[in-house]
Amino acid sequence: DTDPFNKWEAGRALAQNLLVDMATNQATPASAYLDGLAAVLRDESLDPAFRALLLRLPTEEDTAQEIFAAGGTPDPTVINQTHETLKLHIAQHLQDALPRIYAQMVITGPYTPDAESAGKRALGNAALSLISRLDGGKQATQQFATADNMTQQLGALRALLMISKGQTELAAFEDQWKHDRLVMDKWFGLQVSLAAPEAAADTATKLTQHPAFDIKNPNRFRAVFGGLRANTAGFHHASGVSYALLADWLIKLDAINPQTTARMSSAFDTWKRYDAGRQAKMISALERIAQTPNLSRDTQEMVTRILG
């Protein structure tokens, strides 16, 4: 298609259909989709920012909703494994093109925020995240070490965290940016949202014990617990540990900031989508919040609405 939106929408629909088929029918990644993605990625007439966008898969939350809308019961663990499998297949399918594309997107000279440079950084970092699945993070480690701007540092850090690496880089990033509140919000959020599902709740708990975590700072609270919510397989871990953790902190937060508490309670909004075990654990967490003495009106209304 010659229309960029139609091209993007078609690619997204193909990816979503494939992810649903893989999650529900154990299908293998279709070579037609992989070949099409490769052809578009190699098309240098397309804007780098647009090509970076085409490499972005639908979210795990999107896939869960698609399965639910079709009458199925989504399994967050299976969906996460499906997404990871497809990303690895994409990386392997594009392995000959990725290093060349990454090299083409390297910008020499001082950092500039113009659209052309931003697009190159976006495509370079998208390629880097796929390369990291093949080289164990070697290229990302090098990019972090040589980066002269935060965007490239974060791109490298994200790529490393996606493959459960980057602890040295996390410490270095914190040391460099600890005096910048907004940048540190990104540091907190990335760790939780990109943690392995089984480690998400523990990662969030450890970050609440960090000296820079402050429950009275709504941005910092949202960074940690918004990150937990964004980690779909981690938030919906079958143990229910993330549900209980979020409920604990929402109960603490309500007396300080009822508006943020009410908004963050919406993390439980999709409880009807999942299996009976997860439903029971989410309902238990919601009822515990609802039964809190002196609960704010905002939170009471939100929790009551979610419970129906």
Describe the structure.
By secondary structure, this protein is mainly alpha-helical. The chain is 70% helix and 0% strand. The chain has 18 helices and no strands. The mean pLDDT is 95.
Q: Could you list the spans in which at least 5 consecutive residues all have pLDDT below 50?
A: none
- Beta-strand content bin: under 5%
Helical amount: over 70%
Number of strands: 0
Tags for this model:
mainly alpha, 0% strand, 18 helices, globular
Write the layout of secondary structure elements.
Layout: H1 4-25, H2 31-41, H3 48-54, H4 60-69, H5 76-93, H6 98-104, H7 115-135, H8 138-146, H9 150-162, H10 167-177, H11 181-193, H12 200-208, H13 218-230, H14 232-235, H15 241-254, H16 258-265, H17 276-290, H18 297-307
Helix pairs in contact: 1-4, 1-5, 3-7, 4-5, 5-7, 6-7, 7-9, 8-9, 10-11, 11-12, 11-13, 12-13, 15-16, 15-17, 16-18, 17-18
